[in-house]
Structures are given as structure tokens and as C-alpha cells.
Amino acid sequence: MELETPEAGQKFETDVIIVGAGPVGLFAVFELGLLDMKAHLVDILDRPGGQCTELYPEKPIYDIPAWPVITGQDLTNRLLEQITPFAPTFHLGQMAEQLEKLEDGRWRLTTDRGTVLEAPVVVIAAGGGSFVPKRPVLTNLEAYEGRSVFYAVQRMDQFRDKTVLIAGGGDSALDWALNLSPIARRVVLVHRRDDFRAAPDSVAKMRALVDAGEMDLHIGALKELRGADGQLSSVLFQAKGEDPLEISCDAMLAFYGLTMKLGPVADWGLNVDQNLIPVDTEKFETSTPRIFAIGDINWYPGKLKLILSGFHEAALMAQQAFRYVYPDKRLRFQYTTSSSDLQEKLGVADGS
Amino acid sequence: MIIYVTDRDGTEHELEAVEGWRVMEIIREHGLPVKAECGGCCLCATCHVYVDPAWVDRLPPMRDEENVQLDEAVGLEDNSRLSCQLIMSEELDGLRVTLAPGTEV
Ligand SMILES: Cc1cc2nc3c(=O)[nH]c(=O)nc-3n(C[C@H](O)[C@H](O)[C@H](O)COP(=O)(O)OP(=O)(O)OC[C@H]3O[C@@H](n4cnc5c(N)ncnc54)[C@H](O)[C@@H]3O)c2cc1C
Ligand code: FES
User: Fold this and answer.
1) Are residues A89 and A161 in the same domain?
2) What is the pLDDT of residues B37-71, one digit of tens each?
3) Residue in B25, B38, B87 to alter for ligand 2 test, most ligand atoms within 8 A of Cβ
4) What is the rounded average pLDDT of the residues A317-342?
5) Fold classified for B2-99
6) ipTM score assigned to the predicted complex
7) Do A192 and B105 touch (CB under 8 A)?
8) CB A97 within 8 A of CB A264
9) Domain of A202: which CATH number?
10) Phi, psi torsion values for B61, nearest 5 degrees
């Protein structure tokens, strides 16, 4: 499916803003669409699917109704196919950062890249929170973060003629070690073991550079950051059973994978308990009217963090969302199998 | 069977353990905060624990999968293990572990 992903920084008005494009946010598009509501989705990841695509794309899931077995990636692909008729708009690679109430009762959501969305209803399908990089355990790390310690490369040029220490042994670490090698003065790769869980081709290229003396590889652990005013000058490194070694560097890139953190949602004035948002089980609405929470992010007595529960929650949420989006319309309960009206929306009007 | 778990605040808890359960599941079941984001699939390293030195050699050796996933653990030490890969059995009765950084909920 071709996703509709407009440039960041524009303003849109829609019926429902969905925070999180995991499986539950995606299915919400379907339930809302059947009731004539248009949706825009925001996700910090650069592709839809949430945990299913980020954490376990190849793993089989066995408890999706009518799918005896389906992988995380396939489930996402099927959901995208299922919601195609409703043409949702995706704002990917963006953090939903601010939520404010407008005078007319609608909501305005702003992302970290300046996209502004306005709608009468907000659905928080933020799962375990937004995916953010894991931070190594090093004293005074905060002082260096964003200044000489980074978790992503925004501009490669920033590292031109610098000595860059790259920590980690996965694809991100190797890709950046290889990409920065021609630009940086020197790339120093540090990993805990002499084995890399990355594309074999990248590993081979890295080994060749190391053998040719064009890249340094150290196997062991980082112990300490050294520098002043947020500017690194060296790190203390230690190989197993050996004396610590001081490695000079101007910047460090750390790649220890991603983890989920509730993030900005915590500051939206909602009732939040232990990183979860309590909802009622009739409408899955939060303590703030017109804001719903569905999927892994919500809590109610008996809650199970299962994809199937999130799908159910999306269906009930849509009923109440309809009442806010169309206050003057009457809600009619219909089956997709028998309603020609619904079939028309799904683009299968001839019943086939 | 019991295990002793020190939480991120440094408090030790004596937990009743169930044979066949993952140590991570026992910790979670007792309501101690442990992120265990992937639910025991050996995919997240947010169930990372430090094993009491007296116990390190008494545990079953790591499978490759666990060693690989430790790449994504922060605050790694020689006695690091993933608690979702430690399955409770008679031999582990009395095990002592400490929740590592990165496991906070
Ligand atoms: C290894 C593993 C195995 C699993 N196996 C099963 C199984 O067999 N069966 C089952 O039912 N469930 C399983 N689950 C659980 C299942 O994946 C979750 O229940 C499901 O992903 C929840 O969907 P969701 O849409 O609520 O949230 P998520 O999938 O967590 O998606 C939430 C999305 O919101 C985004 N987000 C959050 N906050 C923001 C923000 N402020 N700005 C921008 N984006 C934001 C996140 O980046 C994320 O993409 C498993 C999970 C894991 C990790
Ligand atoms: S719970 Fe994810 S690796 Fe143990």
C-alpha cells in the first residue's frame, strides 16, 4: 500500500487524530472509517506497525482470531490493506508533542517537526509509549547528550574530520561506522564481544577497514566519559582482564537498540497511573472527554495487553467518537456483510 | 522455592517462586517493577539482572540468543543475565539477583 505521508510542518483539519500507528491505531482507522470519520495518524517510528514491526516482525503470532499463525509484519501489512479504502494520512518519524484545547472545543496536536493537526476527537493508541534509544549507563552522560553524545545521525557533516566513537554491534552501529568512515577523521568501533549481529556484508566491510588500519575496533566495555562542558575529549575503555585504556574522541554515537517510554503523553493533563491511562470499558474514553485511549496504553479492571483486546476497544471507541464528530446524526448499527452502505465505503459495492 | 530480588531502589524482596516459570515472570507476578518489554521473547534486554556472584556458576549456561540480546543491555557486567531466560527449578531455589538499570517501568 502507498501510504499518504505529507511533508512535515503543515496544518491539517480532520475528524480524529490517532497518536500511534501500531496495530491498534491502524485498526481504529477501519472502525472510524466505517462510521465516516477520517483519521490522521502520528508515529515517531518511520513505518507503521508499532511493536509488531519494530520488535518482532518475523515472529509468529498465534492468537489473532481467524489467523492460526501470522507474523508481526504480515499482520501489519494486512491491516494496512484493510484500511486502504479509508485513505488515512500518516505523519511518520514525528513525536506527538503538545496537545491543547481550542476555544471551539476541538483539539490541536503539534508534533516535534511542526505538523499541526486539529480535530474534535483524539485517540491515544500509544502502546508502551514512543520508541526511544536506550541510554548507556555512564556517569554524567546527560551533560554530553545532544552536544557530543548522540543516538542518531541528523547530519553526517557534523562528524566531518572528527574522531567518532561508535558503540554497539548491530546494524545501526555498523551502518554508521561504514558511512562515517570516509568523512570522519577516524571511526572507533567499540563492542562487548567480537561477534556482530548485523548484515554479514556490513560486518565483512568493517573487518576489511579494520584490517587495513582505517578503522579501530575495540572489544570490551565503556567505563567513563571524559571532557568538559558537554564536549567529550576521551572515553575510558576496558577489555576483559586488561587495564583500562583511554581512547580520544570528539563524539560518541551509541546504538543499544530502542525501548518504549511514555513520553509527552504524560504531560497532556490526563489521568495517568503507572504509565497507563485509565479508561471506562463502555467507550474507552479517558477522564478528559473527547480523548480516548485504546490498546496497550490503557488500563481498566481485567485489561490484557493483547492485540485482540485493542481491536475490540477500537470498535467501541468509534461509536462514541461518532457522537462527537457528528452530534446531529443518528448512529445506525450495521454489519459489513449486509449493509450496501458500508460496502460502498469499502469499495466493494457490488457485494463481491 | 524462593528467590531473592533486589529492586532498583536497593530493597531486597523474598519472592515465592514457581517451578517452570521464568524468573522475570516471578518478579513481575509479585508486582516488582520490571519492564520486560518483549514479555520473555529474548528481544528487549529490559529484564536484565545482575546475578549474585555466589550463583553465577550455578546457573545453566547462556544460549546464543541470550548472549546476542545482551548486546542491547545497558550497564552490562560480567554477572549480567536476562531474567526471562532463567527458568525456575529446584537447582535455582534461593537464587539472588538484582534488577539492572534499564529495567525500570
Ligand atoms: C515480542 C512480543 C511478542 C508479542 N506477542 C503477542 C501475541 O502473541 N499476541 C498478542 O496479542 N500480543 C502480543 N504482543 C503484544 C502486542 O504487540 C501489543 O499488544 C500491541 O503491539 C499493542 O498495540 P498498540 O497499537 O496498542 O501499541 P504499539 O504496538 O506499542 O504501538 C504504539 C505506537 O505508538 C507510537 N507512539 C507512542 N507515543 C507516541 C508519541 N507521543 N508520538 C508519536 N508516536 C508515539 C509508538 O512509536 C508505537 O509505534 C507481543 C509483543 C511483543 C513485544
Ligand atoms: S523480557 Fe525481553 S529479553 Fe527478557
Assistant:
1) no
2) 999 999 999 999 999 999 999 999 999 999 999 99
3) B38
4) 94
5) Ubiquitin-like (UB roll) (3.10.20)
6) 0.92
7) no
8) yes
9) 3.50.50.60
10) -60, 155
